[in-house]
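Could you help me review a protein record that somebody else here produced? Here is the record exactly as it was handed to me:
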Amino acid sequence: MASKLNLKCFAEQRDLVTPNGKLAVLCIDMDGTTIECQPYFDEAFEEFALLMSLLGIDHQDATDALKRIYYGSMPHRGFERHRFPEALVETYQALKQQFNLTSIPPEKEEIFRSLLKGIGSAPFFRRPKLFADCMQVLTRAHERFLLVAVTVGDYEAQLFKIRQSGLEKLFDDRIITLREGKDDLVAQLIEDWNIDPEYSAFIGNSIRSDGVCLKVMNFIHVPFETSLSKEGDKLPEGTGFKTFKVKDWRDAEENAINRLIRQRDMANSGINASSCKTGNCNSSKPRRKRSTSAGKPGADKTAK
């Protein structure tokens, strides 16, 4: 856990409670959603292709071979940080056999493979760069939602990114896993923290890896990076939850996060929107709960 939960403190300082007496959460993917990831892998691809060109391999042939071997084997290859360097070595071996390369003498092979592994390891511990407006949007959302990082990847590398990006101070917890199937982990979070999925959402860039969480809560799709996408990837259907398709973090705030907040505030106010349309509304303006009373057990459960 990033920090120990203190629900009393949350109730006093943050407005998190839904009309069902539960908590609202935003679960947030890291790579390709909050922080830029693909440019660092693109650099590694370029360095590999340049190195192969020195051996007489066409630049594009080398690039295509690495994409086929690495991306074509995901997610089955795994997300440990040695998997990408492993793919570079495998691609070199495949090209060596295909083009009958003899440029590297046998006694230098191990040194050359170490060089390839170094290129493949470089993307994992670069100083992370946040996407535009991410920090500002999540800082504002922190007042109305629990924030939980839910990310697939090597534990040390992902923890490094969370800390170095400056997001650790905003996250109430983090879930780092080496396997896909985030929906199972989010379902556990919903149960353990008494989360209300109706007023919560998962924010991610991947239809396959993140969109699966539409099974258990709303999904905000921010398609910044899609290199691991495959033809045929699609969202679960008939789950009863909403999908918000947005362009960037500012759009996510305006057209997804703020909508979830408005819907929660309306429900917490006890106003029935359909009653207002028929002229039976008791108030012309929804009254937002004070955060000091929001945490009291059973408070404001009138709206379902």
